[in-house]
């Protein structure tokens, strides 16, 4: 799932007119850069403006704007990014946090980042997220981080979770307008994690390092037993990684992280009956692939 779209804004009574659209986002754009670039492009494309309009209203050259919208060339400076945010009426503070994280991802030095930031005075949007957003963050950070660590190293997991909360701040009004904020938020986290996770050639996220970190291995002293456990764990986690996304998530939260079904329902924003059903189908699928001796309920948390 892509980051939720930003609703179109009024163009001041000016009707949209055809114009050259930006090309697709460049392949080399990193996940954090893409996280802020996609909603900016969505707002631009939904607003009925052209690149020429953005150039006239922001004062930046069309070539620079085109590069920024495609993620082409050098990582964009904050001055031009901020200029487009103002024209498109996108909240500045969460975007600045995302821009800074993406700058580090692009190997920009802190001095370069600070120099860009100091050239622009922020005058739009609140400095802190809404109180409801802060409460949501406090409530879900631990579970989100634990899920991310199943697929990522600690630093990458931290970045994915922080990026998720920044995106939710950016889209908070849309989240509140949805049928369920929790259900709105989970796909945002999942995409941020999966964008960073290593995937096998067939496109499935790898859980190999989770297999080596299971508690069962730490209790085995016999080398032969350890190798058997490693082989069994690798087979089980490989099979789990190939489950459909809802089943994979329930397996990870329940059988790797040790949450009960009620807690899983709270994290996913899913009815507990749906969690029961998803768990049952996932177990059935794993039993079909691995045999009845591989009960995911025995997988160590």
Overview of the molecule:
The protein has about 300 residues and is an all-alpha fold. The protein has three domains: about 30-120, 434 Repressor (Amino-terminal Domain) (Orthogonal Bundle); about 130-195; about 210-300, Orthogonal Bundle (Arc Repressor Mutant, subunit A). The chain is about 65% helix and about 0% strand. It has 16 helices and no strands. It has helices at about 30-45, 50-60, 60-70, 80-90, 90-105, 110-120, 130-150, 155-170, 170-175, 180-195, 210, 215-220, 225-240, 245-255, 260-270, 270-290. It starts with about 30 loop residues before the first helix and ends in an 11-residue tail after the last helix. Mean pLDDT is about 85; it is low at about 1-15.
Summary of the model, kept short:
64% of the residues lie in helices and 0% in strands. It is mostly helical and 301 residues long.
The ordered H/E elements are HHHHHHHHHHHHHHHH
Gross morphology is elongated
Radius of gyration, in Å, reads 22 Å
Structural classification: mainly alpha
Specify the biggest β-sheet: none
Distance between the termini: 27 Å
- Helix percentage: 55-70%
Number of helices: 16
- Name of the CATH first level of the largest domain: Mainly Alpha
Fourth CATH level, the homologous superfamily of the largest domain: Winged helix-like DNA-binding domain superfamily/Winged helix DNA-binding domain
Mean pLDDT over all positions: 83
CATH architecture level-2 label of the largest domain: Orthogonal Bundle
Strand content: under 5%
Give the total of beta strands.
0
- Whole-number tally of structural domains: 3
CATH topology of the largest domain: Arc Repressor Mutant, subunit A
Are there runs of 5+ residues with pLDDT below 50, and where?
A: 1-16
